[in-house]
Design brief:
The protein is an alpha/beta fold. Helix content is about 25%, strand content about 20%. It has 6 helices and 19 strands. Helix 1 runs parallel beside helix 6.
Length: about 350
């Protein structure tokens, strides 16, 4: 292959679209590998109560708008169907389910991509694996002694399972607040715990604010540090639902506890909270362990990226990583990666429509 694309979420499909438009043929010049069972990227695993109307902005994939979506329908269904239509419309021929186990140096200057359906030798790689497969679980003293249930956002089933229970939600991001507000409607009691004071954002969030937020994330990636999410530097939007939850006391936040006990959590100042469930809404890390043989990481722990290209290997591009982790950023990154790869392959732009 000239190019292997790993991942068929927003970033991977965007890259495949631009490869197609550049005149490369799927299954001849490039291949898209996805380990998920069906179309939809990480969206297919989102909890049922996350309806499309609650999604914080879903930017359309290049070449095909998402129109007429029912805001009351589960986002996993809406976006899964949209991605499936997209793959068929542009004949992207995604291979699934395929697990990529390692990418290492191959022969003749190619990369060797080892997968559950065999090995590919490729001149360039677009890594679009996102973060969903690497939920981050903090470790606290006594965690293994807790007699209740612990789960992560990645396994959140919706609020119904928490009816009548005492629930501690850990994490100050968008998922944590959404979980908390849903669960508070049915739980016997909720406690919100975060490492830092939540930061709320009032007023419009336009292009200028978006560029500033992306720049902060981009700087970390440029320095070879593990990326933060774009959301982590924008703050929480102060909408009507958030205001109502604050007035009810649902979003009264406590600082992080110091240890976990068999019946709940405790602080060194003597305060304790009993709980039946601890829900870790503590985010995700980039799913890039399969790239370890290439030794792309910097001393700071991240992969230094210039544009979308890995600084240590010009054949490797990361899209949906760091500053391109938003839906609009993933689209732009897919286009930029293909432009760079086309130069690497020595190809001139071809005037071939993406629908060909």
């Amino acid at each position: 292959m000239d190019v292997v694309v790993i991942g068929a979420g927003q970033a991977g499909l965007s890259a495949a679209f631009h490869l197609r438009r550049a005149g490369l043929e799927p299954d001849r010049d490039f291949v898209v590998l996805d380990h998920a069972p069906r179309a939809g990227g990480a969206w297919q695993f989102r909890w049922p109560s996350l309806t499309y109307g609650k999604v914080h902005g879903m930017h359309a994939l290049p070449g095909l708008e998402l129109t007429g979506a029912d805001p009351a329908r589960a986002s996993s269904e809406v976006i899964g169907a949209y991605f499936d239509t997209y793959e068929q419309t542009f004949d992207l021929r995604v291979h699934r389910p395929v697990d990529v186990t390692a990418v290492r140096e191959g022969e003749g200057g190619r990369l060797r991509v080892e997968t559950s359906e065999g090995a590919y030798a490729t001149r360039a790689l677009i890594n679009a694996t996102g973060t969903w497969d690497r939920p981050f679980w903090p470790r606290y003293q006594g965690q293994e002694t807790f007699r209740g249930r612990q789960l992560h956002t990645a396994g959140y089933p919706g609020p119904e399972e928490f009816a009548g229970k005492r629930v501690i939600v850990v994490g100050g991001g968008a998922s944590g607040t959404q979980h908390l507000m849903e669960i508070a409607e049915v739980a016997a009691g909720t406690t919100w715990v975060t490492r830092r004071e939540p930061v709320y954002r009032e007023g419009p969030f336009g292009e200028e604010e978006g560029r500033a937020a992306v720049a902060l994330v981009e700087e970390r990636v440029r320095l070879g540090l593990p990326p933060q999410s774009v959301v982590s530097v924008t703050g929480l939007p102060l909408n009507d639902a958030i205001r109502a939850a604050r007035e009810k006391g649902v979003l009264d936040r406590l600082p992080m506890f110091d240890r976990i006990t068999p019946t709940g959590v405790a602080w060194d100042d003597g305060r304790t909270v009993d709980a039946d469930v601890i829900l870790w809404a503590t985010g995700f890390r980039a799913a890039i362990d399969h790239l370890t043989p290439l030794r792309l990481r910097e001393p700071g722990g991240g992969i230094r990226v210039e544009g979308t290209r890995a600084a240590r290997d010009e054949r490797v591009h990361l899209v949906g990583y760091g500053p391109s982790a938003s839906t609009i950023g993933a689209n732009r990154a897919g286009r930029a990666a293909v432009s760079d790869i086309r130069r690497l392959l020595g190809r001139e732009p071809a005037a071939v429509p993406a629908t060909a």
